[in-house]
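Sequence only, no structure available. Ideas?
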Amino acid sequence: MNARLTAALLAGRVATGLSRTLGRGGGTVIAGHVVPRIDPTALRTVTRRLRHGSVLVSGTNGKTTTSRLISHILQQASLQPLHNRAGANLVSGLVSAIVAQTSLGGWPQADVGIFEVDEATVPAALREIRPRAVLLNNIFRDQLDRYGEVHFVADLWAKAVAHLPTDTTLVLNADDPLVATLGHERAEAAVYFGVGDASVGSGETPHAADARICPVCGAAFVYTVYYYGHLGQYRCPSCGLNRPEPRVEATSVTLRGDRGSLVTMRTPLGEIQATLSLPGLYNVYNALAATATCLTLGLDPETIRAGLESFTAAFGRLERVRVSERELFLALVKNPVGFGEVLRTILTDGEERSLVIAINDHFADGTDISWLWDVDFEQLEGHVRTAICVGTRAEDMAVRLKYALVPEERILVEADPRRALALALERAAPGETIYVLPTYTAMLELREVLRQDGHVAGFWQD
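Reply:
I predicted one. Tokens follow.
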């Protein structure tokens, strides 16, 4: 027995319990502050005892959904994942996750680790966890005050993956040139995924395309199709850098608005046809990423298909909540590309929508909200029944909607989250869906209102 590790895990459990008992939160990070003070090697020790190793999942968008998809598919294969499900994705969250799923003797009560990791935390996580696979999904502009421009994150990841062991597989998005180039020096250990159905793309350059320049030579990329943001089929006319051939590719995609999508994937082990309840092309990418990762872990296509089709969204990420004969559709928004894709998804049928848009500027949201001016809110013109703006930057959001030509009489500002939800429910007809689009801390505030009223469980119980 490692007495130091045991003492650290016990202290972490006590801290977590106290946090929840005293109503100070979900206890999803506090153990991560306590445990390293007693045993700084706890995360390393426990994760290296996992029978099937660990997977690290990162990317600007889709981290929580994709890691949950992988975890869910593993459970279909009767494997028990050790997973930071609540989305606490700094090192403190990873440590807290092991505390919850490890015996006091220091042995994980799970088969495989699935760790969602914040983009900037990838180097620190890799110093502690020797992963079997690293999934890097995408890089978009996000929280400029924390991450800076996209090339900062790309450089950070390039330096981190350069030191990976040769037996670690990189699972990379072929359609994102910033991500795909990370595999150039490790071709034998890189697995790519991407979309091959041009019918769901466009030939026009999106407003929020973040990477139009070749990272190797600096020439402008030539795209034959854009899927969203700078994701698409590209080539560099100067140095010849091309989109890599995906090992897992969506050959057919049918988008069904906010009700999901149908996707056919080509894989080395045969075709997978799946009906996804998760809507939007961005979730097709999450499904592709999860599929490529699970194939890398040795799972079979039928198990993966069953997992994709039975998966439901995580809290606040396309979550549906019934309240007073209405439906609340919660979709987290946090950057220009992600917000734009959520709007595109919910506006597919062209009908008017009732919206609650909640914008906070706390540290976890990003204190710089200038990104709101890069979101394509102009697609809302003619489609807004009511837009209730709430959060610390509600007034800024209302101004942005006015410039997007949403009629002023349809825009309301309400500072209090509880009153904002009540107002939205009052204005909506029975059976109507209200689309709630919050930043991260605003989402937690709104869900806390719903939890106190008995409509959802605490996010740490999801």
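The CA atoms of residues 315 and 459 lie 6 Å apart.
Hope that gets you unstuck.
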